[in-house]
Design a protein that fits this description.
single chain; five-stranded antiparallel beta sheet; four-stranded antiparallel beta sheet; globular
Length: 205
């Protein structure tokens, strides 16, 4: 009987000793799984940040300008201040807006292509090498239709020349729609159009 009691006491003591060890082992196992999950979540988060598949579309594909959407507003002094055309010939309507930078108060064009890419002209950046960076003077703002013929109608002496004085090779037949801008009641303006992916200017006095 004494031996049985002794054995029973030993079993109880072993159970008392093994119970904390089992709890400790279980706790270590749980903490290890949590750490692994946290590490995997952190790696997934980092991959999402640096992934090139984040879906961000580049803007200002053609001439770049530092822009902030909050600082570019639609012009309130130009009427109209928005036209629709097809500048790149993809048969998807593009939108051209006369806008103003609230940073420097200068005006320019915001060109929104049908594929959602955006580029800016003016607003403090020289417009296609023409010596001006502000389109506040624009009084006529309209689409220059595809197929129309234009030419620089001012010679090197600053004199206006007629169509008869222009050689055929110097005339430009617009491959797609262009943008016609001009002063309202005086000389000065031009046509902006895309030629092989690059904006070009045709002087129109």
């Amino acid at each position: 009987m004494c031996c049985k009691e002794q054995k029973l006491n030993n079993d109880v003591m072993l159970k008392k000793i093994n119970m904390p060890l089992a709890i400790l082992f279980l706790a270590i196992l749980i903490l290890g799984c949590q750490d692994k999950d946290k590490k995997q979540a952190k790696e997934t988060h980092l991959k999402a940040i640096v992934s090139p598949k984040a879906g961000l579309e580049p803007i200002n594909e053609i001439p770049n300008i530092e822009t902030d959407r909050d600082t570019i507003i639609l012009s309130s002094i130009h009427h109209p201040n928005s036209i629709s055309c097809d500048l790149d010939g993809d048969e998807i309507a593009d939108t051209v807006k006369l806008v103003q930078s609230t940073r420097n108060k200068k005006y320019g064009l915001k060109i929104i292509f049908g594929n959602k890419k955006i580029t800016y002209l003016g607003m403090g950046k020289d417009v296609l090498g023409q010596g001006f960076d502000d389109l506040n003077w624009v009084g006529v703002f309209e689409r220059a239709p595809k197929g129309d013929s234009y030419w620089n109608n001012v010679n090197d002496d600053g004199e206006i020349i007629s169509e008869e004085e222009v050689k055929e090779k110097d005339k430009v037949v617009l491959p797609n729609d262009g943008i016609f801008i001009h002063e309202a009641e005086s000389c000065g303006g031009g046509v902006i159009y895309l030629n092989k992916g690059k904006f070009e200017w045709i002087q129109q006095e």
